[in-house]
Amino acid sequence: MFEQVSADELASREALARKARNELAAAGLPVLAPGLNPVLAGGAEVMVDNGADLAGGVFAGWSASPRLQACTSRALRLRLLDDPLLRHSSEITAAMMQAMATILTSAGFTVQDANDEYRTHQLRVIDAPPQGTPPMWSLRDEELTMPGWKTKDPGEGTGNDSAQPSTGQT
Length: 170
What we know:
The protein has helices at residues 7-26, 66-77, 84-106, 141-144, and strands at 43-49, 57-63, 110-113, 122-127, 149-151, 163-165. By secondary structure, it is an alpha+beta fold. It has two domains: 7-127, no CATH class; 142-170, no CATH class. Strands 1-2-4-3 form a four-stranded antiparallel β-sheet, covered by helices on one side. It has a two-stranded antiparallel sheet with strand order 5-6. A hairpin with an 8-residue loop joins strand 3 and strand 4 (122-127). The N and C termini lie far apart (72 Å). Residues 159-170 have low confidence and may be disordered.
């Protein structure tokens, strides 16, 4: 019988997947939305497996464009095993998996090869950056203050909406 993780664990996995999707999107990769029909787009896909076994977790993979997928499927269906397209498709997937691993690791995630015969060319996303670490793409303090503007409140930059233009006097 297939056992699923608890609701809390599933929520934790969904949060990890969401963070990974956001980092990949911030890097400029097209990211497939969960539930999107695969014939509509290609790109990075981060999936949650809710199994309570070793095969469960969060996984990231790459889907080539629908056109390249169709060409690859056609070559396989016709047993054109020497078609250069098959090697090309495999190289694209390998390159994108390496790129995604590098992006996520640089952003503070822990990832590893899925090492699963059913998840070839996928990464297992093990952990997000430490709690309290802002995403790499989050607004920085210097982006929130505008030169030439002052607030009436000495707590400038604290989310106070009372900003007034500077009169040049200090």
